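Sorry, explain these tokens?

***
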Amino acid sequence: MKDKLLLFIGIGALVLAFVGPAIAGTVSGDGVTPWGPFNQMRSGHAGVGPGMMFGSSGYGSSQPDSTISGAAEVSVTLDDFAISPSPVVITAGQATNFTVTNPGAAPHDFTVPDLGIRIVVAPGETVTAGIDAQPAGTYETLCSVPGHASLGMVGTFVVENQ
């Protein structure tokens, strides 16, 4: 009986760990689903950078595209379950417009945790987001939807000097 109780408690804890963030986003009333430590901005590019994210107002609806005039253009595809290209390469000190497409059936995001970048794209949609200049370096990129990184949605984000 004790073993069954411990098993039940363990399963309950796992369910809360994976479902809890979605429930919290739903009951918070703001319509934003926070996945892990990431959240989303609601409008404009506003200089996406450390500590700031950009994307749709939830996985089910898209936000109008936000671009930076004269910025470089980069396209990224978030397929079920891969990020391409990898590496994604941009130039340091230069703003970049990312056009991120999700042709798959699941919600995805393009996240660079070390730079605070997160572009959320619902299934079958494309989002364009302007990203301000970033510091040179090599960073990990991933889809922060729970379980997607472990299924292969990881890559490299390179910000190189000219």
About this structure: Residues 2-27 form the longest helix (26 residues). Residues 22-64 have pLDDT under 50 and may be disordered.
